[in-house]
Amino acid sequence: MISEKQKMLTGRLYKDSDPELVAERRRAQRLVDEFNATRDDAVIKELFGSIGEGSWVMPRLQCDYGYQIHMGSNSFLNYDAILMDCATITIGDDVSIGPRAQLLTALHPIEDHEARRQRFETAAPITIGDNVWLGGGVIVCAGVTIGDNAVIGAGSVVTRDIPPRVLAVGNPCKVIREL
């Protein structure tokens, strides 16, 4: 029988109240609390799936599991980030993410009210290309890819893929012009 964790990792409907997943979130929360109190980069290396050389994270960080977060080299994650990593979050090289950004991979059933009531969910990965800048307060929704060299304006809600080398802003986020 396939575990709820295996379902989560493969993008299938899973129950987030599964004891294994709850234990993993508690482990991540302990590490997040330690990082937020100390800003010890060694804790981020233990928490994240990978983090490249020269990258750094500012407190206050929040995440679900940590091991599904992969951050490239020379990238920056500013204050108060929320990374819901029920699916993989990939942050490229030379990325700047402004304060209070949210990267949200979780999805809940829309039409199946009973499944939602029973705490079933799915997740879809988020990919942020190289040399991307996300302004403060940007929300990136599940399944979104942001192309290399894109700039996302502060406060934008990114619900769809953004191509490379563009400025995109708004709610929902839309391309304004090429860069």
From TrEMBL:
SMART domains: Mac (SM01266). It holds the Pfam family Hexapep. Gene3D superfamilies: Hexapeptide repeat proteins. Belongs to the transferase hexapeptide repeat family. InterPro entries: Hexapep, Hexapep_transf_CS, LacA-like, Mac_dom, Trimer_LpxA-like_sf. This is Acetyltransferase. Keywords: Acyltransferase, Repeat, Transferase. Its EC number is 2.3.1.-. It comes from Lentzea indica. It is an enzyme of class 2 (transferase). Residues 5-53 form the Maltose/galactoside acetyltransferase domain.
